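Hi V.,

Quick status before I head out on leave. The structure for the redesign project is tokenized and pasted below; the design run finished overnight.
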């Protein structure tokens, strides 16, 4: 008899968690739709650096030697459920160079 009670409890448990999981999923979807796309802009304080967002789902920051030391590219992307994610590129060193941040394959950006 105790075994039957355990089976009944295990059948009740998923039915209580399913509405909660569905509510969380709907909240994420609706939040993503109403948040909408944002904007991407270069940091105006980075002299000697150029930001390029001409490639879809990618942001590149290129700096002259001595400029942008310690900075890196970052891009905000949105996944298929509407959740925003931030991706960060490599840090720019004292010799200048570039930093590139890319969205994941199923994401779009910049947002």
């Amino acid at each position: 008899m105790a075994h039957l009670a355990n089976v009944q409890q295990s059948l009740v448990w998923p039915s209580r968690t399913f509405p909660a999981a569905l509510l969380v999923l709907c909240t994420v979807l609706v939040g993503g739709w109403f948040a909408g796309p944002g904007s991407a802009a270069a940091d105006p304080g980075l002299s000697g650096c150029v930001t390029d967002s001409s490639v879809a789902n990618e942001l590149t920051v290129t700096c002259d030697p001595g400029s942008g030391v310690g900075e890196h590219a970052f891009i905000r992307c949105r996944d298929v459920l509407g959740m925003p994610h931030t991706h960060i590129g490599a840090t720019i060193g004292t010799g200048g160079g570039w930093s590139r941040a890319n969205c994941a394959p199923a994401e779009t950006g910049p947002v």
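Above is the designed sequence. Residues 41 and 59 are 10 Å apart (CA to CA).

G. will cover questions while I'm gone.

Best,
W.
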